[in-house]
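Lab meeting, item 3. Inverse folding demo.
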């Protein structure tokens, strides 16, 4: 009889603990915002979509809605509580005031130069009267790279693109002479069919070109205990190889290796 009571008490204690444990999901379900970026999100597919769906499955969260928005609008909607989840975002201090950012990749922002560009240093590029630099609207680079772009803009040498595809198309057509981009974005442009291949020199003269990209969890949608559950599950996916397998569906082995370093 005492064994039965002990077992019953243990079951009750476990049930009480489970009931008190915070659920991983916002009460209204997941409201996800994506923005177009090569291989991460394109026409409803990409490694960001697969990552969110796998995390939602593991944590038992229902996806109430998921939509594509312009890059700048996604974080604005997160800030105002219209979205509770977003992807592929650099954890800048101003963003951490309204959301947690849980890194899952590390991207190296390389410099792509037209073969016609003779200069090899930022100073030479700033003083090249013919050189035009391209940048995606609203995209944040490393501090040194962003400072360089500010100097290019002051010299009226900066041309903005709507997204990465437009940026690389401008580079291939000669509308711009150079741009920053990441291997997972430009890989298929550089290694594509000969007639459409992007001919560029790829270099890295900036010392801070490595950037973290993370999953965005809104403070309005998630509590801190919930955030910890997502962070722990993301680490499990890294440890068990699931994150690598998702990335490998869309990217070369070399790109994936660099992103997970």
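The presenter then showed the designed sequence:
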């Amino acid at each position: 009889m005492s064994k039965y009571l002990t077992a019953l008490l243990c079951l009750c204690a476990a049930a009480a603990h489970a009931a008190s444990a915070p659920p991983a999901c916002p009460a209204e379900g997941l409201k996800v915002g994506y923005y177009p970026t090569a291989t991460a999100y394109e026409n409803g597919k990409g490694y960001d979509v697969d990552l969110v769906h796998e995390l939602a499955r593991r944590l038992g969260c229902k996806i109430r809605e998921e939509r594509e928005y312009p890059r700048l609008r996604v974080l604005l909607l997160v800030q105002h509580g219209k979205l509770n989840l977003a992807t592929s975002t650099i954890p800048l201090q101003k963003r951490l005031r309204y959301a947690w950012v849980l890194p899952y990749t590390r991207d190296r922002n390389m410099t792509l130069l037209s073969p016609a560009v003779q200069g090899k240093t930022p100073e030479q590029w700033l003083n090249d009267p013919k050189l035009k630099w391209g940048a995606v609207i609203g995209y944040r680079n490393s501090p040194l790279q962003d400072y360089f772009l500010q100097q290019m803009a002051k010299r009226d040498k900066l041309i903005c693109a709507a997204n990465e595809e437009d940026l690389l198309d401008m580079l291939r057509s000669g509308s711009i002479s150079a741009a920053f981009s990441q291997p997972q974005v430009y890989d298929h442009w550089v290694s594509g069919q000969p007639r459409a291949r992007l001919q560029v020199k790829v270099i890295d003269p900036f010392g801070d070109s490595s950037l973290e990209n993370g999953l965005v969890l809104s403070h309005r949608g998630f509590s801190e205990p919930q955030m910890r559950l997502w962070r722990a599950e993301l680490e499990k996916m890294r440890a068990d190889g699931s994150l690598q397998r998702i990335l490998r569906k869309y990217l070369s082995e070399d790109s994936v290796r660099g992103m997970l370093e």
